[in-house]
Design brief:
This protein is α/β, with parallel strands linked by helices. The protein contains 8 helices and 8 strands. It folds into 2 domains: 187 residues, HUPs (Rossmann fold, 3-Layer(aba) Sandwich); 52 residues, no CATH class. The chain is globular.
């Protein structure tokens, strides 16, 4: 098998293992390139049918192109789709920097959704190479009953041997893309013909490399107007993937604080 076949096989194994071992669970769908690949893999893992709910924790501040994409493919792929709302900004920790505080609304929205559906686990499309704090994650990552993540005390994972037996009250985050890179995501998207939000392609010399809320996400300079262009750009660029995310330019500990309290 080539690298993409190996990545696909490992992710499919993780998704099947999660579905077999932990219930109830749901998949988070942020509408970005990574979660679209994750959803595609879930459809492959279960022969075209995603056997668990797919949730968008919605801040109400995404780009219109993202909402159009969501509405189209939730219907086309016959998903058990749930839109979960986030609380107002006043409900979020006021000590956080502005962009991190805005992003933290998703943490509270997710916590509410987990309680609403009594979920033991959620599947999320994060990758280790995205950000330093995410590099500390595990594929099956335990949280406490309030969603707190102790990144200093995570179970070992060697040779695709994952701990899936957790004590009562534990909440699990499952990360089937943890071992992928940004370039892998785009190579797989091209190979599989996975639909993507058009904002990833350049228009007037700008494109979005990472998608979040419209008011705290900014485009980068780029002429990459096709999938091939994006892949070629990634093979030479020195610009960080999240360079357009306002949150990543705030205090150094802001992202780690968010992740520790349950941010995706």
């Amino acid at each position: 098998m080539d690298r993409l076949d190996e990545l696909e096989a490992q992710s499919v194994y993780i998704l099947r293992e999660a579905y077999n071992r932990i219930e109830p669970l749901a998949m988070l769908w942020s509408l970005g390139k990574d979660s679209n690949v994750m959803l595609w893999l879930a459809r492959k893992a279960f022969f075209g049918n995603v056997p668990f709910p797919v949730m968008h924790v919605d801040t109400g501040k995404k780009f219109k192109e993202m909402y159009a994409f969501r509405d189209r493919y939730a219907a086309e792929w016959k998903l058990d789709f749930h839109r979960e709302e986030c609380p107002p900004i006043d409900a979020v920790d006021p000590s956080l920097p502005p962009a991190a505080r805005s992003a933290a609304r998703k943490t509270e929205g997710l916590r509410t959704a987990i309680a609403k559906y009594e979920l033991r686990a959620v599947i999320a499309g994060i990758r280790r190479d995205e950000q330093a704090t995410r590099a500390k994650e595990r594929v099956f990552s335990p949280r406490d009953e309030t969603g707190q993540w102790d990144f200093r005390d995570q179970p070992p994972e060697f040779w695709d041997q994952y701990k899936t037996d957790f004590p009562p009250g534990a909440h699990i985050r499952i990360h089937p893309l943890l071992h992928w890179t940004e370039l892998d995501i785009w190579l797989y998207t091209r190979r599989e013909g996975i639909p993507i939000v058009p904002l990833y392609f350049a228009r007037d010399g700008k494109r979005y490399r990472s998608l979040g809320d419209e008011d705290i996400t900014h485009p980068i300079d780029s002429d990459a107007a096709t999938l091939d262009d994006v892949i070629a750009e990634l093979q030479t660029t020195k610009t960080a993937e999240r360079a357009g995310r306002a949150m990543d330019h705030e205090r150094e500990d802001a992202f780690e604080r968010l992740r520790a309290t349950g941010y995706m």
